[in-house]
Design a protein that fits this description.
about 200 residues, Elongation Factor Tu (Ef-tu), domain 3, 2 domains, six-stranded antiparallel β-barrel, three-stranded antiparallel β-sheet, 13 strands, about 50% strand, elongated
Length: about 200
């Protein structure tokens, strides 16, 4: 497991924080006032339904049949149904999306060349603000986004901290965690949930 624990000065604007990796989990605390504790999972989450008989697995590339957008699957979490039954439903956790996924069928390549392996419904990102009560994240300003870096200019991968979280003049404590390869568990509580920490 790769961990970054440190501090950053809030500016009131979105901040790119170079970590050398894109974390699976991030927590930011306003240490000056203690009034913001933001937790988030910067990975992209794509909801799927009607998973076909070709089982989607980590490492596969999926392409939107309508949009042409592509994504690399990092993890598959099965919520209901089965691949063999053609009614698998759940979430794809993806490393990156090139283009804009819409509600559409997706085709698989790399590892399985098959059309219509599932229908994706929407791209979502998960985060929680526990400032005074648990609330869902509603915008990029109040969340964390993946920062892919810029190798040509010497910028490493990391996260972008939203402008609302980056309060001007405040000391922010940062905790970022990346699950390393090899820590996967193929079975969790009987579901095909490929990652457990």
């Amino acid at each position: 497991m790769t961990v970054f624990a440190g501090f950053i000065h809030g500016t009131g604007a979105a901040l790119n924080l170079e970590l050398g990796f894109i974390p699976d989990y991030v927590e930011v605390t306003n240490l000056t006032d203690g009034d913001i504790v933001q937790r988030g999972w910067p990975g992209k989450v794509v909801v799927f339904t009607s998973g076909g008989v070709g089982q989607v697995k980590a490492g596969m590339v999926l392409t939107g049949a309508t949009s042409g957008a592509t994504m690399v699957v990092n993890q598959v979490i099965l919520d209901s149904g089965s691949w063999a039954g053609g009614d698998a439903a759940g979430w794809f956790i993806v490393d990156s999306i090139v283009g804009t996924i819409t509600t559409e069928n997706v085709n698989a390549s790399r590892g399985l060349a098959q059309d219509n392996v599932a229908t994706v419904v929407v791209q979502v990102e998960f985060g929680v603000d526990i400032n005074t009560e648990v609330a869902s994240i509603t915008s990029a300003a109040t969340s964390f986004l993946r920062y892919e870096g810029d190798a040509a200019n010497g910028y490493a991968k990391g996260i972008t901290i939203g402008s609302t979280i980056s309060k001007n003049g405040k000391l922010l404590g940062i905790l970022a965690i990346k699950n390393d390869a090899g820590l996967n568990s193929p079975l969790v509580l009987g579901n095909d949930q490929q990652t457990g920490w």
